[in-house]
What does this fold into?
Amino acid sequence: MTQVPEITIHQVAKRYQTLTALTGVDLTIFPGEFVALVGMSGGGKSTLLRLIADLEQPTSGQILFDHQSREAAAPVIRVMFQEDRLLPWMTVLENLSFKSTDAKTKAAAVQLLALVELSDYADAYPGQLSGGQKQRVALARALMSHPQILLLDEPLGALDALTRRKMQDLILSICRQQQLTTILVTHDVTEAARMANRIVVMKDHTNLAEFPGPRNPHDARAVGTVAEDALQVILHETPTQTAQELSSVS
Amino acid sequence: MQKSMTYSTPAVPRPHRQRPALTAALPFLLPVAVVLLWQLGSSLGWLSSSVLPSPWAVVKDGVTLTLSGELPKNLSISLYRATVGLLIGGGLGLFLGFINGTSRICRLLLDSSIQMIRNIPHLALIPLIILWLGINESAKISLVAIGTMFPVYINTLNGIRSVDPDLLEMGRSYNLSRHDLFKKIIFPAALPQILVGIRYALGVMWTTLIVAETLSASSGIGYMATNAEDYVDMETVVLCIVIYAILGKVSDLVAKGFEALLLDWQTTKRSEAA
It folds into this structure.
């Protein structure tokens, strides 16, 4: 795998006719970092993710990869959406290898299915899977072709609490193991605090504040405090320092 | 004193069992009953043979015409006209549906005109086509082609235009080329609607052919029926109608077979997973 690039977002703005979705976003995301974008609906989280994914173009500003343009750096970016977006006419294995059907790709798909514990479902159609299983397939598909940057657009939003927790652990272990730069968009501040190294609060169409994630994601108290702090900013713009203090000592 | 309590097992609804043989036989029940009643009515003299010949008389007529070679000859020419007309019309409908579905420029250029022509009943073109092409094969094939083109076109266009935009975005996020986007997402997503169009076109195909062969032909099942009418040969007239019904049913079964083969993912259930 080629070196994971640093992402520099410089004064990015996005407008849809008269509607402002993003304004003046400045953010640097370092290689291998797991960043969570949190905030209320309409705050610009998903728009920022879509701009990084090249699904939309910024109205102004730049998104650079290792200080180069997207064309020059050609980063391998994959997106996991809130909906699984699996192709219903393809089997699970075909969904993973839908871009290329050569033997090497199929072998990689089989390996990834084992990683997400769905080897027994290789020949099943998406319609035969549960919501959690579909999202595991979508995660495996996003990991095909060795992405450098993984973008997660509220992928766990529709799952039940237990499945959601299992998926969080799975995503965390894969991202750490493969040293992926990961950006997670979520409404759930606890999920953000549990998974991310850094939590960026998006409010009023820009990145308003950020907190370091707890050093130990299994420390429920530290996770809860960081989450509460992020929530305070989202709701009142008055963060306490507790989260930062806790994250520095935990 | 403690009362003795009895617990009765709650009534559990029995699962509805389907017997495969009965399920397979059910669709044939009504047609067989109608034919039996028809035969009974004819045998008991309730139905005059000048109004409606008995099923048995129709079968005997069919055997005679088959042995003489007249029925196979007319059947094969009708099948030829239907198949070639459908291939031309369906092919054109698919092509126009594809280009108009995937290209905004083509859609702006062509769709409005095609929709205007589509609203002309294609059977109203018979006099014009006879004047242009006479009563030879090309006239009948052209009519079938015109009749079958529009259902295939409309359904192909709608199928492509209603592809889930989320799937298209997913494909683009994986940097699929335009060709791969069409082959791997647009076409398979539109296929159920395209097959609906083809199935509908099969019905139009037979209707058009019947009318075309009845009005201007010297061969084919439609011609056989018109010729029999001239000689008040009721058995052959009814035989031709029954043949059309059978051909229509066979066409529908073939279309259903294609749907089952190509769209098996739509019918698989969660219980069938590993």
